[in-house]
UniProtKB/TrEMBL annotation:
Family to which this protein belongs: Belongs to the V-ATPase proteolipid subunit family.
Subcellular localization, as worded in the UniProt entry: Vacuole membrane
Major localization listed first in the record, in broad terms: membrane
Protein name, entry field: V-type proton ATPase proteolipid subunit
NCBIfam families, per database record: V_ATP_synt_C
Membrane topology reported for the UniProt record: Multi-pass membrane protein
Family matches, as PANTHER family: V-TYPE PROTON ATPASE PROTEOLIPID SUBUNIT
Cellular component GO terms, alphabetical: proton-transporting V-type ATPase, V0 domain; vacuolar membrane
Span of domain V-ATPase proteolipid subunit C-like: 14-73, 93-151
Length: 166
């Protein structure tokens, strides 16, 4: 049997970083973009501020998805000497899946939230349509989280011998 590569943990840590960084980038963009719309609506219609804050909250949830994935990956990396290259690649790909899908959802939530909040201030009937579009945008990140969890928890078995026993 082959000896585990000590550099395999690098890929796992990159998966942790990618999950956290890209998810928080999506959350930050979605919060900032839709927050600008909330501020502009608050000037015209202060009564709609609490109703208009929903896109900001939905964008903030995206950062939580990245944290969940990062915690799951770091929990699977515990015995570093037994960490295989397959596990490193698996954790890198699951971190990228969650991070990039959350980034895409954050872009969609930010743009839809900004336009939807401004439109809702002028025509109240558009609120339900905005909510539906925001929910479908959020499901992009949920799909990534589900696939990322499934991939990261796959059991590869014992693929290599610990490198510190030689």
């Amino acid at each position: 049997m082959r000896v585990c590569d000590p550099n395999s943990a690098f890929f796992g840590f990159m998966g942790i970083a990618a999950s956290s960084i890209f998810s928080n980038l999506g959350a930050a963009f979605g919060t900032a973009k839709s927050g600008v719309g909330v501020c502009s609506v608050g000037v015209m219609r202060p009564d709609l501020i609490m109703k208009s804050i929903l896109p900001v909250v939905m964008a903030g949830v995206l950062g939580i998805y990245g944290i969940i994935m990062s915690i799951l990956i770091s929990g699977k990396m515990s015995p570093a000497a037994n960490y295989s290259t397959f596990a490193g690649y698996t954790h890198l790909s699951s971190g990228l899946i969650v991070g990039l899908s959350s980034l895409a959802a954050g872009l969609a939530i930010g743009i839809v939230g900004d336009a939807g909040v401004r439109a809702n201030a002028q025509q109240n009937r558009l609120f339900i349509g905005m909510i539906l579009i925001l929910v479908f945008s959020e499901t992009l990140a949920l799909y990534g989280l589900i696939i990322g969890i499934y991939i990261s928890l796959s059991d590869e078995g014992k693929l290599c011998e610990p490198y510190n026993t030689l």
